[in-house]
């Protein structure tokens, strides 16, 4: 036994090294590892995996424990989700069980039990068919499927037969490969082309119109020339803002599935934005009324630049729709449960959740930004985060927005596993609320949390 | 001997829930495919969805037969009885969802014949994604007996209705603007309505899960509601 196992182990190590060098190899390497494992120690591995479930017999299982870890831990650390599936009979649905899931698979499919019925973790029919083909047809099968939900992922599933187990059950391995990124890049590219070309055409048409006029009969009219040039500048600036926003949106989308890891004080971010925007607010005669908790109370897991962008966009919008003499209110609340976080502030306004997180966490920090502007009619609420969407009758030239601000806010909030709600009624103003998961309070006060910004900014 | 009997009884119950879950997976795929067919104007895929609907019908009848057999032969009590009844009721709801998906696919075949209307299909796609994610959540809740997740679907039905209302207005504007689009728009309106009803079925399933786990019925009046006709 040992010589084979050792040779297998060495082979695995070599293959893994290769795999690190060339990502494309991982799948084949994985299968090679599992094939080796199946021939030599797989039965033992399986024994140790299922051991917990039928440990009633109280076998010492020391040998299994001694022999299994090399394979188990090796397969466990591979980046692609891997499941080993066993089944007794083709027409008995419950007999298809996963008997091993590596940690990537447990993460992806949110598997809690060490083994269980396959259909409880994957129910996409095309994958089940592929698994059946590998189990009972002894054939390799491959399919692509999409998980639903707000954080949808595109996965390629490879099912390959592993022969018969010791108890006569059919074995197969299912390897999943995440292809979300590739699809997303593709999709973003086509969307960008469609939206951007349309939105960029408007200022461009106006620019070329003015150039024509300046070359023609306005050539010697100094007054008209100055006026036209300033319009042209405004249009050029609009185009560049548009391009900036489009770029930042596609960047955010590409990272949407990568959860942020830094810690950010939401309160400090709000203060930064308020400082930066104060001159503009003064100029417009709009008062800013923040109500913030003490520094460090609203610590969220996030990307600082993106959090600032969220606050900035919400405050910009509120300011844009406020008349002179009005006020923009900013309220930051912490330690809210999932239900309290979506609670409204305006009882008689229409309320809609523009983004609801897939899984709620214990506590949220919520920032509400309210204005007393014209408000938005209920039927327009669902489309607010749509790119380039403008509420009917609102000319694009009138307000200096790009039509992308709320789309950006939504995507950032989604990346942060947060949510976004809006409340509004015509004539009564609007309230936008974004809520983000707080850093769990297991860390005692004064732990290594970077509060530098808080200190310098306050 | 006694143990054996109990074991196979439990097996039968497990087979039932596993079959409902598998049927759920098939239904999800049907809804996702019919949506893809509308958005991409994919004639072949639409045809496939129509063809696959029969599998759901067969599964539903099979589940019903098994459930009735189980009730007749095992006389399940309390928990087990609720589990059996819930499986049967959920299967009925899923079968209806399958029919609605088939209907969307059939309409797609007509819609394809007219000119593409990009902004409209986008709105349909957005609404469809929302409905799909509700289906997924509620089926996840079923496989994991997760009451909280089921409740989250139950209390959020409003969002789908809002989307439907918004789409309704959008379609009206289109039809008023260009009468040539009326045929396609009318079909799209039914597509939207079907999606909205799929959302309602997801809510129903959430209610059934609540009943299965707690044994209590949900009070429909407590659910936040928007009137679908309040446009």
Structure in words:
The complex is a heterodimer of chains A (458) and B (231). With 458 residues, chain A is of the alpha+beta class. Chain A has three domains: 2-178, Beta-Lactamase; 180-256, Signal transduction histidine kinase, dimerisation/phosphotransfer (DHp) domain (Helix Hairpins, Orthogonal Bundle); 259-457, Histidine kinase-like ATPase, C-terminal domain (Heat Shock Protein 90). Chain A is 45% helix and 19% strand. Chain A is built from 14 helices and 14 strands. In chain A, the strands form three sheets. A six-stranded antiparallel sheet of chain A has the order 3-2-1-6-5-4. Chain A has a six-stranded mixed sheet with strand order 8-10-12-14-13-11. In chain A, helix 8 (180-215) packs antiparallel against helix 9 (222-254), helix 9 packs parallel to helix 13 (405-415) and helix 10 runs parallel beside helix 11. The longest helix of chain A is centred in the middle third of the chain and has 36 residues, at 180-215. Chain A is elongated, with a radius of gyration of 29 Å. Chain B is mainly α. Chain B has one domain (2-222): Phosphate transport system protein phou homolog 2, domain 2 (Methane Monooxygenase Hydroxylase, Chain G, domain 1, Up-down Bundle). Chain B is built from seven helices and no strands. Chain B has helices at residues 2-40, 43-74, 78-111, 118-144, 147-155, 157-177, 182-214. The interface between A and B is medium-sized, with 30 and 36 residues.
């Amino acid at each position: 036994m040992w010589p084979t196992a050792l040779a297998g182990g060495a082979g695995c190590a070599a293959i893994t090294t290769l795999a690190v060098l060339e990502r494309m190899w991982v799948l084949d390497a994985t299968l090679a590892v599992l094939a080796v494992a199946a021939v030599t120690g797989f039965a033992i591995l399986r024994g140790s995996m299922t051991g917990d479930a039928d440990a009633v017999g109280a076998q010492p299982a020391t040998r299994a424990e001694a022999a299994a870890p090399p394979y188990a831990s090796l397969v466990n650390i591979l980046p692609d989700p891997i499941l080993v599936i066993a089944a007794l009979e083709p027409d008995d649905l419950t007999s298809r069980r996963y008997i091993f899931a590596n940690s990537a698979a447990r993460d992806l499919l949110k598997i809690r039990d060490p083994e269980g019925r396959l259909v409880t973790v994957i129910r996409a029919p095309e994958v089940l068919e592929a698994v059946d083909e590998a189990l009972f047809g002894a054939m390799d099968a491959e399919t692509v499927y999409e998980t639903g939900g707000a954080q949808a992922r595109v996965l390629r599933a490879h099912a390959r037969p592993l022969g018969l187990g010791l108890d006569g059950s059919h074995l197969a391995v299912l390897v999943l490969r995440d292809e979300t990124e590739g699809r997303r890049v593709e999709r973003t590219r086509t969307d960008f082309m469609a939206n951007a070309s349309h939105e960029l055409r408007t200022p461009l048409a106006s620019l070329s119109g003015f150039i024509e006029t300046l070359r023609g009969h306005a050539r010697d009219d100094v007054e008209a020339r100055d006026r036209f040039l300033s319009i042209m500048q405004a249009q050029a600036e609009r185009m560049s803002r548009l391009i900036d926003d489009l770029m930042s949106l596609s960047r955010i989308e590409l990272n949407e599935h990568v959860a942020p890891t830094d810690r950010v004080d939401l309160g400090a971010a709000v203060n930064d934005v308020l400082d930066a925007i104060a001159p503009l607010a003064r100029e417009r005669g709009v008062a800013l009324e923040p109500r913030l908790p003490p520094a460090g109370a609203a610590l969220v897991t996030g990307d600082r630049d993106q959090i600032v962008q969220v606050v900035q966009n919400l405050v910009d919008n509120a300011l844009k729709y406020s008349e002179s003499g009005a006020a923009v209110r900013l309220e930051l609340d912490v330690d809210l449960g999932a239900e309290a976080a979506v609670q409204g502030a305006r009882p008689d306004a229409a309320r809609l959740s523009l983004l609801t997180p897939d899984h709620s966490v214990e506590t949220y920090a919520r920032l509400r930004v309210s204005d007393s502007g014209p408000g938005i009619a209920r039927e327009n609420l669902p489309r607010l985060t749509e790119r380039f969407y403008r509420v009917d009758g609102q000319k694009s030239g009138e307000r200096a927005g790009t039509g992308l601000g709320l789309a950006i806010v939504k995507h950032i909030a989604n990346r942060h596993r947060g949510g976004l709600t809006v409340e509004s009624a015509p004539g009564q103003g609007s309230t936008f609320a974004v809520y983000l998961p707080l850093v769990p309070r297991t860390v005692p006060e004064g732990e290594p949390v970077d509060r530098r910004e808080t200190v310098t900014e306050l | 001997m006694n143990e054996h009997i109990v074991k196979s009884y439990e097996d039968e119950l497990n087979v039932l829930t596993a079959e409902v879950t598998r049927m759920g997976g098939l239904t999800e795929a049907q809804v996702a495919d019919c949506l893809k067919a509308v958005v991409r104007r994919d004639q072949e895929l639409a045809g496939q969805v129509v063809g696959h609907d029969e599998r759901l019908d067969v599964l539903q009848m099979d589940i019903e037969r098994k459930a009735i057999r189980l009730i007749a032969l095992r006389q399940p009590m309390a928990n087990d009885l609720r589990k059996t009844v819930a499986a049967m009721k959920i299967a009925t709801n899923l079968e209806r969802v399958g029919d609605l998906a088939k209907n969307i696919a059939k309409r797609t075949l007509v819609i394809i014949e007219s000119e593409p209307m990009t902004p409209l299909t986008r709105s349909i796609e957005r609404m469809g994604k929302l409905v799909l994610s509700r289906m997924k959540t509620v089926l996840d809740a079923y496989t994991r007996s997760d009451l909280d997740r089921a409740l989250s679907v139950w209390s959020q039905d409003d969002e789908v209705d809002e989307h439907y209302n918004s789409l309704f207005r959008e379609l009206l504007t289109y039809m008023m603007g260009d009468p040539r689009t009326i045929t396609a728009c009318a079909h799209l309106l039914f597509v939207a309505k079907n999606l909205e009803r799929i959302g309602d079925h997801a809510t129903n399933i959430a209610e059934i899960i609540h009943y299965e786990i707690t044994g209590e019925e949900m009070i429909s009046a407590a659910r936040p509601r928007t009137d679908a006709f309040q446009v």
